[in-house]
Specification:
Strand content: 5-15%
Number of strands: 16
Distance between the termini: 67 Å
Radius of gyration: 38 Å
Structural class: alpha/beta
Length: 753
């Protein structure tokens, strides 16, 4: 947000401007400003009340949003803890390494990219000493935990190409360091060993330690300061000369000579290396005096060092650095979700502030003063409404308020506020006009959805924005797919799949199906008094029908088969009408299959209200079947490479329902395509693929086979998606060709003219 907060209104300025407006309205100049003049007295008291309201609006936002019980409704107001908002899923390789290294059995991990774009290689260093009783079990645990952590934080359209567990290679430090006369030799040696060991672990950051916890500004402005660059672990000995500034800063060090690392021979009983085995260097503290390769000198004389005291000092140095490291947060700065002070917004009426002579309760013989009474009452009413608006701010901004409000003005006001709150997060609600997003909703449902949609999106923003570059995993859809589903009104697919509703009914959509012929001719219908009497008033709360009743009441289904066209029409409420029977005393529920032909009779009731209620239940059941079948799957090509290792880099397919009433409409498909282009990361190519019911059933079967690890399933799924994508492109080309004007035959002279 830009600009400055508005300043509280000043009484003198208000009075000056109000007098100017009053003089302009009356065309007269005010010269009498004494109490006996009712005009200026009323004006001054009104200005005083306005300054009081202005003072109340200048309270802290926390106080204005604190409810009557003195509680700040954090959840209802969609306020989030900074520790939840600021973190994000990995963006760089270093971020990914830090997330994986948080696993219990993983000490640290080195992340590198392989030759093929999208594939990562992990080198895992276990958190414990691999010389333990069962090092292989520890390595296996570290490998499994690192793999699981990678897939929890996996970047979109990326996969794990190789994972190896590095083994320890003992390394000794050699070199010469000159110290000052006041320095303690073992303490200086311990500091050097600690820093060199930290350099080998990739945890040396060159300083920056502080006893003060990290504030929100620290994390927001310099997040990179909380991670440390990994050292070179490609088999080369790290060059300690590049870290001399760190070693020179050690208290007591006068000069740093040449330092070097020497690899120690492996133990006699060491396990044989595996193919492609990687190692990490670990600095070994000397156990005896001859093992001390680090020489400390004072005035050119080498000092004798005690290895036991060096070990003790290393523990003290490590504890001291941990205490001063930036591993904790500044709790007072991060604790922001505390209750405010509930303010009193009671406003004294202007009439009560006036002298007794001008109050409305005072008797007046002159009827002309009745106009002043009306004027004062109007002022009181207007000012009271302003104060009441301030008092109602906690309820107005709460996401649990007025979700079912039927007042259009109230809904528009709430929607405008929610759009503003979403904009403060750097987001924008997509335009839904002419998108068919609300095809299944009536007017009342649409109003409630517009509110719920924005509230749900506002509350989901911290999670989806934090994970915006993360792919789907077992615990969630990832940021991209989660945001797309929310904005496109597509719930996560059920465990049984998107075709489960059709399978439960035993219904198959077949373009070649031959449904029964409608039996009710339009000419045979008893004409109502007005055509509108045949329409059924929409009731979105009507209970759905049982599957058996639905099939019995849908005569356009024969032997579990119907055409896609009739299935699409079944979700349209206007295709259901109620008409009186030929002999009277009963009413038919009819379904219009289109083309202006006969109608299907779904049911017959003696009462028109009962027939209308059944019609609502019937069409709500079909509408729910359509809505429940809509969803989206994200299929990343890199995850289907299988043993062939063939895949398209940075490529994915968004598989969507294409056979329902809303999904079949071009406007809704264009809306989803716009969302896809807006939300997809710029380096990824994600293509939408709209499937028919039979195609989706085959896709879901193969997808389950891939999840179960069936041999050949990834290749079969890739082939199916390629064939279906080609089929959609051919259908689009055929549709464009069919829309072209036909050429005029050369032999048609009349047409030629």
């Amino acid at each position: 947000m830009t600009g400055t907060d508005p300043q509280p209104l000043e009484f003198a300025l208000l009075r000056q401007r109000a007098i100017g407006h009053a003089q302009a309205a009356s065309g007269k100049i005010w010269t009498d400003f004494n109490l006996h003049d009712p005009g200026v007295t009323l004006l001054e008291q009104t200005c005083f009340s306005l300054t009081e309201i202005s003072y109340q609006t200048s309270h802290a936002i926390r106080d204005l949003l604190t409810g009557a019980g003195g509680r700040l409704d954090v959840e209802g107001l969609a306020l989030f803890d900074p520790a939840r908002v600021l973190p994000g899923e990995p963006v760089t390789d270093l971020d990914l390494a830090a997330q994986i290294a948080a696993a219990p059995q993983v000490g640290r991990v080195l992340v590198s990219r392989m030759a093929r774009q999208g594939l990562y290689a992990l080198t895992v260093i276990p958190a414990v000493d691999p010389r333990a009783a069962d090092p292989e079990a520890l390595e296996t645990q570290a490998r499994h935990q690192a793999r699981a952590a990678f897939y929890r934080h996996r970047p979109l359209a990326c996969d794990l190409g190789r994972i190896r567990v590095a083994r320890r290679r003992e390394t000794a430090l050699e070199g010469e360091v000159q110290i000052t006369a006041a320095a303690r030799p073992e303490r200086v040696a311990a500091e050097i060993y600690y820093h060199v060991s930290a350099i080998l672990r990739g945890q040396e950051d060159g300083g920056g330690e502080t006893r003060k916890g990290a504030t929100r500004a620290d994390v927001f402005e310099a997040p990179q300061s909380f991670f440390h660059a990994p050292t070179d672990q490609d088999g080369k000995v790290p060059d300690l000369e590049t870290h001399l500034s760190i070693l020179r800063a050690i208290p007591g060090v006068a000069h740093v000579g040449t330092l070097a690392l020497r690899d120690l021979p492996p133990p006699v009983l060491a396990r044989p290396p595996e193919p492609g085995q990687e190692y990490y260097r670990d600095l070994v503290l000397p156990a005896t005096a001859p093992e001390i390769g680090l020489t400390l000198t004072l005035h050119g004389i080498a000092l004798v060092l005690n290895p036991n005291r060096i070990r003790e000092e290393v523990f003290r140095v490590a504890a001291d650095h941990i205490a001063r490291a930036r591993h904790h947060l500044d709790e007072p700065d991060w604790a922001v979700l505390w209750d405010g002070r509930r303010r009193d917004f009671t406003l004294a009426q202007v009439d009560a502030l006036l002298p007794a002579l001008y109050r409305t309760a005072a008797p007046r013989p002159a009827p002309a003063e009745a106009g002043l009474d009306v004027y004062r009452s109007a002022i009181d009413t207007h000012l009271a409404a302003m104060a009441q608006s301030l008092a109602a701010l906690p309820e107005f901004f709460s996401g649990d308020t007025d979700r079912d409000a039927m007042d259009p003005a109230r809904q528009r006001q709430r929607i405008a506020v929610l759009d503003h709150l979403v904009a403060l997060q750097g987001e924008e609600m997509p335009p839904t006009q002419h998108s068919d997003l609300h095809l299944y909703r009536g007017q009342a449902q649409r109003g409630r959805f517009e509110l719920w949609w924005r509230i749900a999106y506002l509350r989901a923003l911290p999670a989806v924005n934090a994970a915006r570059g993360t792919g789907p995993h077992g615990q969630g859809p990832g940021g991209f797919l989660g945001k797309l589903r929310l904005l496109a009104d597509l719930p996560p697919p059920p465990g049984a799949g998107l075709t489960a509703g059709l399978a439960m009914l035993g219904l198959t959509l077949d373009a070649g199906a031959a449904p029964p012929v409608p039996t009710i001719a339009r000419a045979d219908l008893v004409p109502p008094e007005t055509p509108f009497d045949m329409l059924v008033r929409r009731d979105d709360t009507a209970r759905p029908l049982a599957p058996a009743v639905l099939l019995k009441s849908s005569p356009w289904i024969a032997q579990g088969r119907t055409t896609p066209e009739l299935f699409l029409r079944s979700a349209n409420p206007s295709n259901y009408i109620v008409a009186a029977g030929e002999t009277g005393g009963h009413f038919h529920v009819l379904f219009d299959p289109g083309h202006g032909g006969p109608l299907y009779r779904c049911a017959t009731h003696r009462d028109k209200a009962a027939a209308a209620a059944f019609a609502n239940r019937l069409r709500n059941t079909w509408r729910a079947l359509h809505a429940d079948a809509e969803g989206a799957y994200l299929v990343e090509d890199i995850l289907l490479r299988g043993k062939s290792q063939e895949f398209a880099s940075h490529s994915a397919t968004l598989v969507l329902t294409g056979w329902t009433a809303r999904a079949a409409r071009p406007a809704y498909r264009a809306y989803v395509a716009t969302l896809l282009a807006r939300l997809a990361p710029a380096h990824l190519l994600i293509r939408p693929l709209w499937l028919e019911a039979g195609e989706m059933a085959r896709f879901e079967r193969l997808q389950r086979a891939v999840a179960e690890g069936a041999d050949g399933a990834p290749r079969a799924l890739r082939a199916l998606l390629a064939v279906l994508a080609m089929r959609r492109r051919l259908e689009a080309v055929s549709a464009r060709l069919a829309a072209l004007p036909r050429p005029v035959a050369t032999g048609d002279a009349g047409a030629m003219q």
